[in-house]
């Protein structure tokens, strides 16, 4: 296995609406920033991979237009996943493992403001039994939260504490959309209040991966990907235990997360109840700093929030604020798909 690291990370300031910006306008400053941090030019990148959803844009193959922000001439080696950018990072990591590239640019973006994202996300559901009923993402998360409460795992005040802790931490994050004292608010779908749910907004993120000595040349303290894995639950919600996340636990095990303690965890938990589930599944105690960036409760650009978790964890290692971090991304309803990566600083490499 080749040693591969995240050597640079950049993201937009996340906003409720960016009507004046196209996807290309949203992406270009981030791409320039992440490449500028490494000193690489676009034509020096060995592989480019992106993550986005055509359903958000409302047109097929919308990701090809976003390539204008990268520059496709001279011809580049490029791929795309109809997923969160965390899965684009996984594809780029595999590409580097094959030896076909030494560096990779990974980016993702999402503009949720043009439409009703709760309805858009119903298109992820089983097309025969669930999608025709149009259960939206918040309603399904509420079912999960109620299952947790019924099982005695959590309650309303405990969920409110999760929201408060994340948004208080986000006060130190200049890119966050929501920070500070956010009221619990009214019930959106019982038992979830508006404060238990993520903000709707637009944003983009990008990272640069590099292998071995190339990574060391590009970054003073690379965030080495010591393990990465992703797993999926059964597609039918009715056959799952919504109070647990076996796929997140298995992905963490395969990524080596349980071999040694981590000091930081960036969890892609758009709803407060999902952080409760993930902390239990991943064995994260109070000694672990969870979501020091504020997490998805502070900014949740669809298709970019998972990549941001990886980037935020890597950035803490770059700055020397973490030695061993866990980064998690999810996609689909009720934590259906989960990706876990373990990142380490150079001094922690064994």
Q: Can you put this structure into words, describing what you see?
A:
With 350 residues, the protein is α/β, with parallel strands linked by helices. The chain contains eleven helices and twelve strands. The longest helix is centred in the N-terminal third of the chain and has 16 residues, at 23-38. The radius of gyration is 19 Å and the shape is globular. The model has no long low-confidence stretch (mean pLDDT 94).
Report how far apart the termini are.
14 Å
The average pLDDT value, as a whole number, equals: 94
Note the beta-strand portion.
Answer: 15-25%
Unreliable segments of 5+ consecutive residues: none
Instruction: Please tally the helical runs, counting DSSP H or I stretches of 4 or more residues.
Output: 11
From the spread of the alpha carbons, the general shape counts as globular
Could you give the topology of this structure?
Elements (H helix, E strand, L loop, with lengths): L3 E8 L11 H16 L8 E5 L2 H4 L4 H5 L11 E4 L3 H13 L5 E9 L5 H4 L16 H14 L5 H14 L17 E3 L2 E2 L8 E10 H7 L4 E10 L13 H10 L8 E3 L5 H10 L7 E2 L14 H14 L5 E8 L5 E8 L6
Parallel strand pairs: 2-3, 2-4, 9-10, 9-11
Antiparallel strand pairs: 1-7, 1-8, 4-7, 5-6, 8-12, 11-12
Helix pairs in contact: 4-11, 6-10, 7-10
Question: Can I get a quick summary?
Answer:
32% of the residues lie in helices and 21% in strands.
Offer a few descriptive terms.
350 residues, two-stranded antiparallel sheet, ten-stranded mixed sheet, alpha/beta
């Amino acid at each position: 296995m080749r040693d591969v690291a995240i050597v640079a990370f950049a993201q937009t300031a996340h906003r409720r609406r960016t009507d004046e910006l196209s996807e290309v306008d949203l992406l270009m400053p981030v791409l320039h920033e992440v490449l500028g941090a490494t000193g690489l030019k676009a034509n020096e990148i060995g592989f480019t991979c992106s993550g986005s959803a055509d359903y958000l844009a409302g047109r097929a193959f919308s990701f090809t237009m976003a390539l204008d922000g990268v520059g496709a001439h001279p011809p580049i080696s490029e791929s795309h996943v109809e997923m969160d950018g965390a899965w684009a990072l996984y594809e780029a990591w595999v590409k580097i493992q094959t030896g076909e590239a030494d560096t990779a640019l990974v980016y993702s973006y999402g503009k949720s403001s043009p439409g009703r994202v709760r309805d858009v996300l119903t298109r992820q559901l089983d097309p025969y039994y669930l999608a025709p009923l149009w259960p939206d993402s918040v309603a399904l998360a509420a079912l999960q939260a109620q299952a947790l409460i019924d099982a005695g795992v959590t309650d309303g005040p405990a969920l409110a504490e999760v929201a408060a802790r994340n948004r208080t931490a986000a006060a130190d994050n200049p890119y966050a959309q929501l920070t500070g004292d956010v009221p619990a608010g009214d019930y959106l779908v019982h038992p979830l209040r508006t404060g238990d749910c993520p903000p709707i907004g637009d944003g983009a993120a990008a990272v640069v991966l590099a292998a071995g000595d190339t990574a060391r040349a590009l970054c003073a303290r690379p965030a080495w990907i010591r393990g990465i894995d992703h797993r999926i639950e059964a597609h039918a919600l009715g056959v799952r235990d919504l109070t647990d996340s076996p796929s997140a636990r298995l992905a963490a095990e395969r990524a080596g997360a349980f071999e040694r303690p981590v000091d930081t965890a960036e969890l892609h938990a758009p709803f407060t109840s999902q952080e409760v589930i993930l902390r239990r599944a991943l064995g994260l105690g109070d000694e672990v700093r969870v979501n020091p960036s504020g997490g998805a409760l502070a900014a949740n650009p669809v298709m970019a929030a998972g990549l941001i978790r990886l980037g935020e964890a890597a950035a803490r290692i770059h700055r020397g604020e973490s030695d061993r971090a866990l980064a998690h991304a999810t996609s689909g309803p009720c934590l259906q798909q989960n990706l876990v990566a373990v990142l380490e600083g150079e001094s922690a490499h064994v």
